[in-house]
Fold each of these.
Amino acid sequence: MIIKAPVDLNLTQNSGQTSQPPWKLESNVYSDVVVVDNNAVLFQVKQEGNNLKFDFVGDISNKEATNKIKTIFDLDFNLNKFYKYLNNQPELADMTNFCRDLRLFLAKDKFECVISSICSANNSIVRWTKSIDDIKKSWGNKFTYLGKDYFTFPDVSDLKNVYCDDLEELKCCSNLNNPNECINNLKSCGVGYRAPYMKKASEIFTLEMDLEDISKMSYDEAFDTILKVPGVGPKVADCILLYGFNFRQAFPSDVWIKRIVSYLYFDGNEVNVSKIREFGMEEFGDYAGYVQLYLFHYARMSGLMKKLKGK
DNA sequence: ACCCAGGGTTGGC
DNA sequence: GCCAACCCTGGG
């Protein structure tokens, strides 16, 4: 099937958005298993010029499959209109030259997005994506298509039963004798001190909080709610709301966004992160999420980031 | 070998 | 409210 919508698939997949790690790549085709209405569906996605071409294997209709791909890759978003907006802002006009056809890469699994976002905090992209892939391999459901293995992200109730580290695992499993035999714990996936956050988050989403409820909330209510989850501060909360729940008015603000926005809008005078967040939401409205995404990549690719490093 | 930073968050003052 | 510490990996 073909969807007529420009998208730079490589850029979108590798831009470090915390909805999920990049999909499995083989000869320009990105593939992964997505659960759609309790059906596991294999999607194979490929960019062809200004179109996104995809195939799928699974028990859903063509229309459902198309809608799912449109949602994940945000294909209904009008890029031309967004670029017109950017080109009318002197501070932002240059961005379109560096991030053309970059789109949001939205969650295929809200819980995966929560854990990925927690994992990304104070971490490098290569490391958090590898951790999430390890978690999928360890506790997700396995599907084999054409001789290749795919893993879904484990659901809330499965992750809550995983141990944090090998000591805890050793203590609880009488059949284990030494730490080398321990593999059923989060730290073995390289998540470090975030392991207890992830486990507590799983418990919270089993017992107290329903991910589906958050979709129904206002942005402010959702932000305050998700902030209560351990390992979730303001930056991670906005990532979860943007990539996981499609709150496009979120403006995830971290040190880099702070440096970039201070440079572009405050004459280089450093404004604190929380003010930057308020400024971004006020200034960019429903484009805030996209502007944040573009600012980061613009800075990375234009050399602005190097210039601002250390400030 | 050593040191440092990484798209933050937490807990202690 | 501020600030050091936090796990772990890769690069100087």
Note: Residues 16, 18, 118, 120-125, 127, 193-194, 197, 230-236, 239, 252-257, 273, 296 of chain A lie near DNA strand B (CB under 10 Å from a C1').
Amino acid sequence: MDQATAEERLLDAADTLFYERGVQAVGMDAIRQASGVSLKRAYQLFPSKEHLVEAVLRRRDRAVLAGLQAYTSARATPAARILAVFDYLDDWFRQPDFRGCAFINSYAELGGVSEGVAALVRGHKRAFTAHLAALVAAAGEPPALADQLAILANGAMVTAAVTGSPEPARQAADVARRLLEPAQGVT
Amino acid sequence: MDQATAEERLLDAADTLFYERGVQAVGMDAIRQASGVSLKRAYQLFPSKEHLVEAVLRRRDRAVLAGLQAYTSARATPAARILAVFDYLDDWFRQPDFRGCAFINSYAELGGVSEGVAALVRGHKRAFTAHLAALVAAAGEPPALADQLAILANGAMVTAAVTGSPEPARQAADVARRLLEPAQGVT
DNA sequence: CAGTCGGGAGAACGATCGTTCTCCGGCTGC
DNA sequence: GCAGCCGGAGAACGATCGTTCTCCCGACTG
């Protein structure tokens, strides 16, 4: 097994286990067993568990944003691209191993004790909101809508995780549709 | 020190430390030191750390819902009572030690490995949504609004925690105000 | 006032964790 | 074919954790 596939297998195993059980509940030996990569090799690829945790988050950050990009850019109109975000959530929430947003979970578990993890989570959510802001700007909607949609999306993630139901995706999409209607109060 | 105050001091110290650093990052000895209650006494009040964690969550559940009740019932009109939820969040987010919702954090950290914690978090969020549902019903709004407000509130909590800003409370309130306007599409 | 009992301080214990080291087998270059 | 080395398996190590035990002081009861 060459170095690249060992690294990939390690990241795959660590990602799955961390997401399922949380970071602190997973020992390095469980990652070794799940990945098939020896501890010695693991430690020469990632000098500590914290490095591995951060590498997992960095890879997931890229994957999530790429997936979201693919989902939204497939739609025809700017408004449809905004609503596609919630279709993306709906698909995600229906996956049987869904257990919330790995970044929110990591922040909750480690944000208070690991500045590295906290910074990565902040960066991911900032990038997520920036993606929404680009969609909002392309749709000619007011910039304030981006933060509102981000709150909706994050809220749907945690609510779906806690309740174990995919319903929040549809409920958040309903709200988003209301926000895309022309405003009433101001004329 | 009698039994009741020992229990209260334990719960106070454990609550503060768990909230600051997470549950697994806090050892029983740190709780002993912060509370001034001996380990022996602690273990005859709570037979294990897991019991203590669950007792902390149960007490916080009561406190949060009572605080919310006080906040919302102080307003005059049904619509104002709904919007008061977001004033409550705004006050909360501005507290210097704010680090997100303890229930969401606990679920993220332990929901995958402790069924007791997961059940308590589900119960708290269900009660929170039920409170919103009561306000929504009293305002004569459609029942679907309650779940939408819950998503908004939960989203504001995690977004405020990750970004470290109280802004999400106001942004979520803006969305809630839009939802309280009469709907447009359906006439 | 003497004896008993509850509680405090902290050591002790077994388990587990992150990390490193040892030993050994198999592949590579001459 | 053989010496040298890289990597795997797993033991070892020190730290820390949850939990229990020991020792001792101080207070209450007859």
Note: The radius of gyration of chain A is 19 Å.
